[in-house]
Each structure stands twice: as structure tokens, then as C-alpha cells.
Amino acid sequence: MFQDVYTGSIRVPKAAELVAARIRKAIVVGELLTGDNIPSEAQLITDFQVSRPTIREAVRILESEGLISVTRGAKGGARVSRPDSTTVARAAGLALQTRGATIGDIYETRMIIEPPAARLAAERRPKDAAAVLRAHVQREFDLRNDATAVTQAIADFHRLLMEQCGSISLGIIAMALTGVFERHLHLAQRARPPVTEEAREKRLLFGFRSHGRLVDLIEKGDGPAAEAHWAQHMNEAGKVWLADLAPTTTVDVLD
User: What is the 3 state secondary structure string of the chain?
Assistant: First the structure.
């Protein structure tokens, strides 16, 4: 009877996948918290009534997902960890690269979501967001003589803005897009034609002042002005960065 309505095969999950799913659920619902050790290999074998290779495969699955970190050796073990920006960015980057997404496409998306995030930060948590961002602007200034470090710091400002807007979803999106984009910022920074130290510092200080202006607007709770300022900043900054990166360049996250 069933062959009349469906002729495809049904894939039965492997035992390791089922074990990984049970542990994954325990992490997601909070039964296992970040930093907790998962039960020992021997305990998991007893609990799930499966073989040692099955448990080890389940652990590898969870490790590849960034849900646990494993320390090998006599005193090693598996500890619960939240997926970090590297994990999120790599997963997103692979999905974007296989679909032919370009640097210009990613920047366009950031221009759509970052200005409203600035408004949310100003309207939802002006004091807390401003405190975090203001400290980071000072860090940018302190790193201005280190080209690689300051490039990373500038990318981090965008990520922090998204994280401070009070939306968990936007924070995760920021992890993905900023992580992918910053990889290419570093490539552009290394390939950029040399400029005088004076010109370089002038460009950096202009950006830092713009960041500081955004922080002032957020601290005042002026959402519309924060959104408008950051939209203008993203538009002007995009002209510079995309000129260095070539907007039609396809995303490449592979080492």
C-alpha cells in the first residue's frame, strides 16, 4: 500500500546521530550549560547502551558543530561550549560561497541591518550599549599604529554594535556576516596600495570620530539620529572598502 504513495527509501539515523541528538538537546534546553563536562565515555556507553566507537563518533559530531570542545589526553574530556563567531561565520561562509555570494552582496545586507540595529541600541539600552562601544572606540584609537590590529578592531565595532542592540537574532546574524566580511577586510588591507602615514591616520581618525558620534547618539537615546548617522557612515565606508575588495569578488572562506 505504501509503495503506491511513496517509493523512496527511508534513511534510518545511525546510532551515533541519535546519541548526538540526545546530548545536543540537553545542551540546547539548558540541562548541560556552557563549561559543563559531559558525562565520561564509560558513563555514556552505559547510559545509551552503545559501543565505544559510537560514542566517539557522536562526540565528533557535536565537536564539529561547535557545541563541545574536546581536550585529548589522560586528563582530557568533553566540555560544553557555545558556538563562537568563528564557528558561525564558517558555516555561513560555506553556505554563501557555494551559492556564489559576493562581497558586495554581503556589504549590502549589512547596510540594510546595521542602521536599524543602531536605532535599537539607542532606544532599548542606550547607557549599556554606549559604555561598551565607547570603550571599544578608545581601543581602536590605541591600536591605530598597528594596521592589522586596527582593521580587526574596526570590524569588531560593527559586530559589537549588533550585539548591543538587544536582539539576539541580529547578534547571531552579525557573527555570520561580520566574520565572513572581516576575513576579506584583512586581505584587502594587505593588498591595499601604500599611502603616506599622514593619509592613513587621517582616514582612521575620520572613522573613529564617526564611531564616537554614533556612540554619543546612542547614549542620548536618539534612535532616529543614530540610524541616520550609521546609514551615512556605512554608505561612505562602503565606497572605500569595496574599492579595495572589489564588490564582485565571490566570498572565499576556504583556507
Answer: CHHHHCCCCCCCCCHHHHHHHHHHHHHHCCCCCCCCECCCHHHHHHHHCCCHHHHHHHHHHHHHCCCEEEECCCCCEEEECCCCHHHHHHHHHHHHHHCCCEHHHHHHHHHHHHHHHHHHHHHHCHHHHHHHHHHHHHHHHHCCCCHHHHHHHHHHHHHHHHHCCCCHHHHHHHHHHHHHHHHHHHHHHHHCCCCCHHHHHHHHHHHHHHHHHHHHHHHHCCHHHHHHHHHHHHHHHHHHHHHHHCCCCECCCCC
Q: Which pLDDT band holds residue 1 (cuts at 50, 70, 90)?
A: very low
Question: How many domains is the chain partitioned into structurally?
Answer: 2
User: How does pLDDT run across 172-211, given as a tens digit for each residue?
Assistant: 888 788 777 777 666 666 656 666 878 888 888 999 999 9
- Do 26 and 74 have their domain in common? yes
Does the residue 252 lie in any domain? no
State the residue range of the domain holding 187. 86-245
Same domain, 104 and 205: yes
